[in-house]
Specification:
Elements lengths: L1 E2 L3 H5 L2 H4 L7 H7 L9 E7 L5 E8 L7 E7 L16 H9 L3 E5 L18 H20 L4 E11 L1 H9 L7 E7 L4 E2 L6 H14 L5 E6 L7 H13 L4 E6 L16 H14 L35 H10 L6 E5 L5 E5 L4 H12 L5 E5 L2 E2 L8 H8 L30 E2 L6 E5 L1
Parallel strand pairs: 1-8, 4-5, 4-6, 6-7, 7-9, 9-10
Antiparallel strand pairs: 1-15, 2-3, 3-5, 11-12, 11-13, 12-16, 13-14
Helix pairs in contact: 3-11, 5-6, 5-7, 7-8
């Protein structure tokens, strides 16, 4: 997570975040139904002074009554208001742990998503920022230990980005039952005037190390846009020199930005081996004991090759250019179209098919259908020839030029906006989406 103060910093996350700002959070929640395969549900966890705040918390668990060992995963921060941030699920990591017999909790801290209470931070004081966020994680741990479906003595806590910083702050307490901490690209960036955020982060980790009570695993990638190898090493060395217990794993470049590795379907290839070794070392289970069926996917068809741009129905010239651009996007990805001429693509993150359909449907007065997923076509309609396409497209409003300055999914940067006091972003932790209507 970082606090944006300059247009230059903002441009580093445009490709991942500019489009997401227009995607209605409600539409995502409606499409991403609770996953029955992992018994997903949402509970309210008391937190804050006198337990007056309630944390919106996603729970996954295997079949049965348990009790189960527990993984708690802590989120970063999106740009804008914390209350506008959608509920985080860390679906791919959760699935890997449910297979190993764990329950998984993902609490949204105070002020985030539908959690009540007030979001709190202290500007450039990284140490205090971590401690403030750790208070809510402690509340989640305390709640979990009272639940009959949790093995109270077998808990591990993980966090990504701002959640990673908070997780390390939590490690200064001797929390009963918490055996290990996992820090995925943890940190906090603040580009406001006069803020030496790098040095402040190093100082924070030194304090957390001096008071460290729980062993930790750290994972940072070579092409992390926020906390690169030099800073990751400085933070880790300060932590160790102060007396902390933690191993740093530096992995190679991951896709466009290693900062979002944990949110990617392909991230498990990076984090799984070292994470399982760490868990084994702290006495947590690591063997797969449950089967979690893969989510249903659209069937491949023989309609056309995925790279046959001319075969995609309903698209104007701008839409065809957008589809050609979509073919350069990372998997998982999905492209949806409508007879109205609307189109949408989504890449990375959870359920790109559902996100693409949700956004397309919100912008079209006719039903949207998936055309392609990953590297294959799923469209099962009739082929539309060039003459019929021209007739159809003459009756609909052409989509906006996707390469116009500032357009969603544009390759042309928007004009820099004026810096806002609380404009924040969690780079690459969220997926991309583009649309036209």
């Amino acid at each position: 997570m970082f606090r944006v103060r300059t247009a230059a910093v903002r441009k580093t996350v445009t490709a991942f975040l500019a489009a997401l700002a227009i995607l209605p959070g409600v539409a995502i929640e409606q499409e991403l139904q609770l996953d029955y395969r992992m018994n997903e549900r949402v509970v309210q966890v008391p937190a804050g002074r006198d337990n007056r705040a309630m944390l919106e918390t996603t729970v996954f668990q295997p079949n049965g009554q348990g009790p189960f060992p527990l993984l708690i995963i802590n989120h970063g921060k999106d740009p804008g208001s914390p209350s506008a941030q959608p509920r985080d699920r860390f679906y791919y990591m959760a699935a890997a742990f449910v297979k190993r017999g764990y329950a998984v909790m993902v609490p949204m801290r105070q002020g985030f998503a539908n959690s009540t209470g007030r979001y709190r931070d202290r500007g450039c004081d990284m140490t205090t920022n971590g401690y403030l966020q750790a208070e809510d994680i402690r509340s989640a741990v305390e709640y979990a230990r009272t639940q009959p479906w949790i093995v109270g003595g077998h808990i591990v806590v993980a966090g990504q980005s701002y959640g990673g910083l908070a997780t390390m702050a939590l490690g200064t307490e001797q929390l009963q039952g918490v055996r290990g901490l996992i820090n995925f690209a943890g940190g906090l960036r603040d580009d406001s005037a006069g803020c030496g955020w790098r040095s402040s982060l190093v100082s924070a980790m030194a304090e957390y190390g001096a008071n460290n009570k729980i062993p930790s695993l750290w994972m940072y990638g070579e092409n992390d846009s926020l906390f690169g190898p030099d800073l990751a090493n400085r933070m880790h060395e300060a932590f160790l020199e102060a007396g902390g217990k933690g191993r740093l794993v530096e992995f190679a470049s991951f896709k466009r930005d290693a900062h979002g590795m944990l949110a990617s379907r392909d991230g498990e290839k990076i984090w799984l081996k070292d994470t399982m070794a760490f868990l084994k070392g702290v006495g947590m289970p690591t063997e797969v004991i449950y089967n979690v069926p893969p989510p249903p996917t659209a069937a491949r068809t023989d309609y056309a090759r995925v790279d046959d741009v001319e075969a995609v129905p309903f698209l104007s010239e701008n839409g065809r250019r957008a589809y050609a651009d979509y073919l350069t996007k990372m998997t998982p990805r999905a492209f949806a179209v409508s007879p109205s001429g609307a189109w949408t693509w989504a890449e990375e993150g959870e359920a790109p098919e559902a996100r693409a359909l949700a956004t397309c449907s919100a912008k079209s007065n006719q039903p949207c259908k998936l055309y392609s997923v990953d590297d294959y076509v799923v469209w099962n309609g009739e082929r539309i020839d060039a003459a019929e396409r021209a007739t159809m497209m003459a009756s609909v409003t052409p989509p906006a030029d996707p390469n116009a300055p500032g357009a969603v999914g544009s390759t042309v940067p928007a004009a820099p906006a004026q810096p806002q006091p609380d404009a924040s972003a969690n780079a690459s932790a969220k997926p991309s989406v583009a649309e036209a209507h």
